[in-house]
Design brief:
Length: about 100
């Protein structure tokens, strides 16, 4: 699994550490202050099949999750705010684009 990681705080750092211990998980790009600073580098990368959103909050998380799903990428998030506010829209968008 090639991962684009949106955020590199406490949770993002934890995802990074887990991926280092699991050969099946490859964090290809990280959106953060010391890494990729333009989300387009992740959203347009055809090698990335899964986006892990760990930014929190509604925006820009919602917009970036929508763009990832529209590109057919699977999305993993623990963002309760965005899921609570946009669950139906996100699941419909995932279904339309063959993503999860």
């Amino acid at each position: 699994m090639n991962i684009g990681l949106l955020g590199f705080g406490v949770v993002g750092g934890g995802v990074w550490e887990l991926a280092q211990e699991n050969r099946a998980l490859n964090v290809k790009k990280v959106l953060g202050k010391a890494a990729v600073q333009d989300v387009e580098a992740i959203l347009r990368d055809t090698d990335i099949d899964t986006v892990v959103e760990v930014l929190g909050g509604l925006h820009p998380a919602y917009e970036w999750i929508c763009r990832a799903l529209a590109a057919g990428k699977d999305v993993v998030t623990a963002n309760k705010a965005v899921i609570s506010a946009y669950y139906r829209e996100l699941t419909a968008l995932a279904h339309e684009n063959g993503a999860a």
